[in-house]
Amino acid sequence: MSQATMPTTSMPSPGTRRSAANLRYFHVGASATFLLIMILGFQQFYVHGRAYPGRPLAPPIRALLIAHGVAMSAWVILLLVQSLLIANRKHRIHMTLGKIGAVLAGCIFLLGLRVGVSAAQVAPPQVRLWNLPYKQFMAVPIISVIIFAGFVTLGVWYRKRAEVHRSMMLLATLAAIPAAADRIGWLHDSYLNTIWGTIFGPFFSSLVLGGIFLLIKWAMTQRFDRYYALGWGFLILSSAGIMQLATSGLWDRIANFLLSY
Fold this sequence. Notes:
By secondary structure, the chain is mainly alpha-helical. The chain contains 13 helices and four strands.
């Protein structure tokens, strides 16, 4: 065969290979960051079996709270394991664990809804979170877990499109992580009485983290992730919307309906 007719194969350029490797490192680092936030935020739960900031778990829903805590912890650990598997080219194991992850996400969704409602049912009337009575604050966990489930659903739907799949799973965890981040005392106090806390409530620190992730990913890969950016923008708008909705008559009717069950 002459040189002119020999088949040629295109090899990825060194820059492309470096970008792909950096992308894998980014997702490992982001997943590890989520795990660190979970450990710091829920250290009272992990070490002492207590709620933040040291209160006992409410006896009527103690088992429910533990189940939800275990499920959410398992999700963040699984996210890190999945990232490490991709970084080490273990795609088949990654896909197998992905099925378990989808089931786990469904459990988190159902448990999250139940915890959001049950916590409001047993909370003392004087309890206020972010200056909201618990019935109003209930909008935060209820809508957050719905958004979490929405991102996971998109991630599963686009599981064969890696660039969409990985961004949706990252965003799903970002939607759920405020529950842990808002329990890190110094972080919570840093924006509690600021304009950002007023607008975004417990979501503010996770939104900042989401923006940092976007910039780091862009710098490491030299590519702007429009799927992640759109999802992050949605989280910004929805977070502000949740805080506004919580004090509305519409949410009062929704909350009364949920609390009746």
